[in-house]
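step: validate -> pass
step: tokenize input -> pass
step: predict -> running
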Amino acid sequence: MGAVAPSSLPSAAPLFLVDGFNVLWRGHFGFPAPIYSRDRQRNLTGLFAFFALLRVTLRDDLDTAPAEVCVVLDGEHGSAERKGTDAAYKANRESTPTALEPLQFLTPMKETLDAYGIAWVEIDDAEADDVVGTLVHRYTDHTIRIMSADQDYYQLLDGERVRIINRSRKASKRIITDTEVHERYGVTPGQWPDYRALTGDKSDNLPGVKGIGAKSAAGLLADGLTLDDLRASGRLTGAKGAAIDAAWTDVLRWRALSRMRRDVPVVWQATGQASPDLPRPADVIEKLGLW
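step: predict -> pass
step: emit ->
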């Protein structure tokens, strides 16, 4: 199936796109206190935290009208294509039983989302950020909020239309805008993959160019320059310029790995209607019979 064409829904509700694994993992390992079943035999923290964080974010942090929610999940083989390009991609991520504990909550999480009329998308060979990138590109007439602590989403920021909500930050700083990214890092959202290619990205195990830090990368990309223009710009001078030139093939590969796809064949279509209110997380656990 080919990519779905850009869509237009008159007076459509804003879209609230949730990086499901990011929220689930951060909830499971970062919730203030563990949540157990009444017999203390089941650790329910990830499931409880996911719905608690989603509910409170929609209630307290959303700077738009009530939104249509879509939870986006990484496909089982979502990173296979990138790993085929670079075996080091995400190779630093733990795969121990402890690190993978949140996976046990995927099935009940999906069941709950279905039961309460909340959409979710999981494409076997696509990463969540590529699906989100595709939806942002498709629904150009929608106000969109993305819930994630992953900085890769910075490349999608677009004025008032596309913003990120990161609950890992204090309340007054949770909404991230393109203006903030430019002021803090010295680059625009469109330059973010170029910036990451130079500086590296620890979360995805991209090393970047040795000796090139945030300030150096921002200076090289000043005035909207991209990697496509960098070699002809006269800015690659001295030892740092030589290091970038020597690693050029790697730099371009790292940028490609950092760029989100915008052509994933996502079948799900926005309805234009705000999603139903989410239940209390305790009610979710009760409905599933897990207490």
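step: describe -> The longest strand covers residues 68-73.
step: cleanup -> pass
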